[in-house]
Amino acid sequence: MTHSTTAEPLNYLNHKTGLWSWLSSTDHKRIGLLYLYSITIFFCAAAVLGLLMRIEKIAPGQTIMSAQTYNGMFTIHGIIMVFIVVIPGLAAVFGNIMLPIMIGAKDVAFPKLNLFSWYVYISGAFLGLYSQFANGHSPDTGWTFYVPYSAEASSNVVIALTAAFVLGFASILTGLNFIVTIHRMRAPGMTWFRMPLFPWSLYATAWIQILATPIIGITLLMVIAERTFHIGFFDPALGGDPVLYQHLFWIYSHPAVYVMILPAMGVVTEIFPTFSQKPVFGYVPIVFSSMAIALVGYFVWGHHMFTSGISYESRWFFSFLTFLVAIPSAIKVFNWLSTMYGGSVDLKPPLLFAISFIFLFTIGGFTGLTLGSLATNIQLHNTDFVVAHFHYIIFGGMGFAFFAGIHYWFPKIYGRMYNFRWANISWGFLFAGFNLLYFPLFVIGIQGMPRRYFDYDPKFQTGEVISTIGAFILFIGLIGMISNLVYHSKRGAIAPANPWHGVTLEWQIPSPPPHENFDEVPVITREPYVFDHPHTN
Amino acid sequence: MKNHENHISSDTLNWTVLVILLILTTISILAIKMHLGAFTVALALILASIKVTIVLTYFMHLKFENSLLRIMVGGVFLLFAIVIAITFIDYYFR
Questions:
Q1: Rounded average pLDDT over A44-73
Q2: Structure ipTM
Q3: What residue numbers bound the domain in which A295 lies?
Q4: Would you state the torsion angle of the CA atoms of residues B32, B38, B39, B40, taken in this order, to the nearest 10 degrees?
């Protein structure tokens, strides 16, 4: 390992060089970047699969792949996107890079455990990838692994289940690390209500991670036991109950949606005050709404099962709670809008993505209420409407917040600026492409187009063609955005320490940050979003 | 933040807890042979819960930790109990 000989000041990127210095680093920022690069690669792979599926559906009947290949494709796409990209996504990348800095710490509480989490994650990810190719039988169960099919299918279900199990461990370890870090390592003077809101969202997320993930772990082991040893947990032929699987699966997988979306909400909550040069509106309600989402979101899993044979009493109970969880989400939306209201709004790329997040997440949220309503759910269950809703929440929500976050913290992470014009054009393609891709699915879903179907009635073709065109436009936007960021991470103009005039701690240290973040431990004397000298732009 | 002093349990306490756990395990095994019908599972779960509580309290030192940690662990168990209860209520009404 060698020290950098360039004139650039020593920072976490150049204080050690070489591949091994990265693979063995316990620096939270480097580990965050390891997650960023891994997740980006897997995201691109799964996005290509999504594009191929859209091409298949440009016309009724078989076009470029067989029905079995299509089944494998949507399963692989789902497993990679959900378990490898979206669930770790924001928390593992921006949580790792920014959490310690934002609370005034030099690292997370357990740096070695943090590195171990990444190795567990990458092992699970490669195991998931292996399941797609081993023995020539990629899993075709969908990412939900519903029994009894997953207990009987001849494809590589056990390997894929093991991968999800291993990935869950990484999630638990990261969550544990973040909870201890936030409890034990805040800078002197940083009381709970002086902590920025992104760490608050990570705190709520971490609790869900450590509480819910073990349940899916055990459930997946039960499926493996059923397949391997024929122990009757879920298969009616063995005395089991398939609805029990759905209960256990969604007890984790619905809160997992909040693992995805809570950090996204945290990211945009940092962006709105900075680009409005105004304190965040309703700090305390935002904090409590994060905790309320985490808590109430834990009890709404049954809305995935309205048509699965659960009791009438359960249906109205889960439907009621589903409507209840919309309230804290709506509080956040009103707070974000109120933060911008009357502010000195500067429409730079991070804010463009953050505003798009509100727009898309709101559509996803409202259509979620449509699905949470008992009467409409029966009509819409298992249609493309669900696919559209899910993608508006996950891609429109978490995805666009991720894009907002990377454009926001990019100068801090790399010490370079990206090209704004390039970023804005990419945003245009992404936003237009996204809506063209997914909005038609709401329409054809209402008309009765089932999801996960390789073939379809010709009357749905208009919607399918528009959707496929949207997929290509979205893809162009993705290529534009990623190339802008990759190119300028090395060749962009040197970024100042605080290019956006932010007030949280990460903007008070050099860009890129030094190895141990702070030369002196900061002492916090006031709330996090106080703008002493508002900048007019 | 202040680190509290580590508590060291006496050997007597550790051995006592171990013996209690072994007794409870023996009862669990014997209960299977008593043909209690549906209550067999209930009894097994109750005994397992008692053992978990003892392990958490003494072997994992929860008894000697500060109240925040106890509230956290208690909250987790409460949440887990609610989730299981909701699931079984669904079965009851089906």
A1: 94
A2: 0.78
A3: 22-508
A4: 20
